[in-house]
Write a structure and sequence with these properties.
The chain is α/β, with parallel strands linked by helices. It is built from seven helices and ten strands. Bound molecules: S-adenosylmethionine (SAM).
């Protein structure tokens, strides 16, 4: 384990990861379903503003831009932000520059005004932190959502392989789980439903679904919460 992996916010670790390996380029079907169900009938998508916290190299940003929404994203990795911008540029999705705003930074301190967004999404990014960062990030998500705005998150549950392995640094948070989807990715927090209910108690209409699947010929169990919540 290196010093960088132990950095509380994990940023240098993720920057190195994106510099050294290719990352997924396409959004998960659960995000596509959430977007279609929530905003599919809106007549003018350019009036709907999304924020993705922990956008990485932009798989979900790319999708939201292609669908015509206003899109902002933040990630701790400058390498990832550059990769996301390059992809949008090369696919001519940056022509309307005011509609896309990608920034490098820590998502526990969001650089946007109160009530700026109709929707905020977290696709397996907030989990990669210690609880103090997770708590601040959720408070920030609440702050930047409009009243009636919606959060959608996909996060690992305690039922996921690797939970309980690696070095435990606080309840449900492990550095370098030895197996499962978080192995090799530094700090990982695995959520229980009770914990998510408490963390999102300032929101209303919490709705829990989940994906429970296996990987690698049934040898790796993955449990991902699909949480929607309204401000
Ligand atoms: C597993 S990747 C997911 C990336 C993207 N959401 C996707 O679906 O491809 C986790 C991302 O969260 C970012 N991240 C983790 N902690 C962060 C923090 N405190 N502030 C900003 N970004 C963070 C990492 O840099 C990384 O890009």
């Amino acid at each position: 384990m290196t010093e960088q992996i132990e950095h509380p916010k994990n940023m240098a670790f993720w920057d190195q990861t994106f510099a050294n390996r290719a990352w997924g380029q396409y959004p998960p079907e659960e995000l596509i379903r959430f977007v279609a169900r929530t905003f599919g009938k809106v007549p003018d998508r350019s009036e709907i503003s999304f924020l993705e916290v922990g956008c990485g190299p932009g798989a979900n940003i790319w999708y939201l831009c292609r669908e015509g929404y206003r899109v902002s994203g933040i990630d701790g990795s400058q390498t990832a932000i550059n990769q996301a911008k390059n992809r949008l540029q090369s696919e001519r999705l940056l022509h309307e520059t005011s509609a896309v705003d990608l920034q490098q930074g820590d998502f526990s301190m969001l650089p946007w005004a109160d009530e700026a967004f109709d929707a905020v999404v977290d696709i397996e990014a907030v989990y990669a932190n210690e609880m103090s960062v997770i708590v601040s990030c959720i408070a920030e998500i609440h702050r930047v959502l409009k009243c009636g705005g919606v959060f959608f998150g996909k996060m690992f549950g305690i039922q996921t392989a690797g939970y309980g392995t690696g070095r435990m640094i606080e309840e449900n948070t492990y550095v370098d789980p030895s197996v499962g989807p978080c192995a090799g990715f530094g700090i990982s927090h695995f959520f229980s439903e009770a914990e998510l209910r408490k963390l999102f108690s300032s929101f209303s209409r919490l709705s829990f679904d989940w994906v429970h699947r296996t990987d690698h010929e049934g040898t790796v169990e993955v449990f991902e919460w699909l949480l929607t919540a309204t401000k």
